Amino acid sequence: MEKREEKRDLTALRAKAREIAAILDERYPNSAGYLVYDGEKPWQLLFSTIMSAQCTDARVNVVAERLYRKYPDLAAFASAGQEELENDIRETGFFRVKAAHIIACAKALTEKYGGKVPEGMDELTALPGVGRKTANLIRGQVYMIPSVIVDTHVKRVSVKLGLSSDSDPEKIEYDLREVLPEDHWTVYNVQIIALGRTICTARSPRCGECFLRAYCVWDGNKKL
C-alpha cells in the first residue's frame, strides 16, 4: 500500500476515538454480530457473509436457516449442484456468483484445510468470494483476533466522524487501526452498524438525534 501523503494528528484522533468508543459502549453494550450461525461450524458465518453482499442480514438469516438444514456440512456444499444452490439462495440476490463462490469455497476448505476455516488473512482472502471485510469478520468474530471490519456503514460513518478521510475500504481499515483502541476494533463494526441503521442512515441521517454529533465533521454535506 502506498504511503499516505496527508499527515494526520494521531494523538488528537486517538483521544477522539477513545471518547467515541466509550460512548458507543454505553449505547450499544451488546457486541454480538448480526448474522446467525452455529459456533461449532464457523464456515456458516463465512457463507452467510458471502450471501450478505448487497443483501440485508435479516434476509440472509432467513435463507441461511433452511440452507444449513439442507446442507449440514461442508461436504454437502462441496458436492452441491450449481443450479440447485442458486435456487436455494436466490432471495439474497446475485445468486449465481454467490453460489459459485460458496461451492468453490467449500471445496477449498475441504481439500486444503481439512474442513477448518483458516484464520490467516492471506489464507482467507485466497478463498473464492472472500475479501478483507469478510476475512476480518471471521478473524474478529470466530478467532477473537482484533480486526477492523469495514462495511458500508463503517465506511460512511467513520468518514463523517473524521476518523478517516478516504473512500477506499482498505485505507479506511488502516486509518481506524491507527486510532481506535485495539480492544474495540471488532466491536466497532457491530456498534457502527447499529448507529448507521437507526440514526446515521445513508439517505436521511437524523443528525439532531445523534449522540455522536459533537464529534462529527459533517452536517448536511457541510463541514462543521
Structural commentary:
The two termini are 31 Å apart. The model is unreliable at 1-5 (pLDDT under 50). This protein is an all-alpha fold. The chain has helices at residues 10-27, 42-51, 57-70, 74-78, 82-88, 95-113, 121-125, 132-141, 152-160, 169-179, 185-198. It is built from 11 helices and no strands. It has 2 domains: 10-31 and 148-215, Endonuclease Iii, domain 2 (Orthogonal Bundle), CATH 1.10.1670.10; 42-141, Endonuclease III, domain 1. It is elongated, with a radius of gyration of 19 Å. Helix 2 (42-51) runs antiparallel to helix 6 (95-113). Helices cover 54% and strands 0% of the residues.
Q: How is the secondary structure organized here?
A:
Layout: H1 10-27, H2 42-51, H3 57-70, H4 74-78, H5 82-88, H6 95-113, H7 121-125, H8 132-141, H9 152-160, H10 169-179, H11 185-198
Helix pairs in contact: 2-3, 2-6, 2-8, 5-6, 9-11
Q: Give the overall average pLDDT.
A: 94
Report the principal-axis shape. elongated
Structural class: mainly alpha
Low-confidence spans: pLDDT under 50, at least 5 residues? 1-5
- The number of helical elements comes to 11
Number of domains: 2
Would you identify the CATH H-level superfamily of the largest domain? Answer: Hypothetical protein, domain 2
CATH architecture of the largest domain, by name, is: Orthogonal Bundle
How much strand content do the residues show? under 5%
The biggest beta sheet is recorded as:
none
Order of helices and strands: HHHHHHHHHHH
What is the rounded Rg?
Answer: 19 Å
CATH fold call of the largest domain: Endonuclease III, domain 1
Span of the ends, CA to CA: 31 Å
Look at the structure and give the CATH class of the largest domain: Mainly Alpha
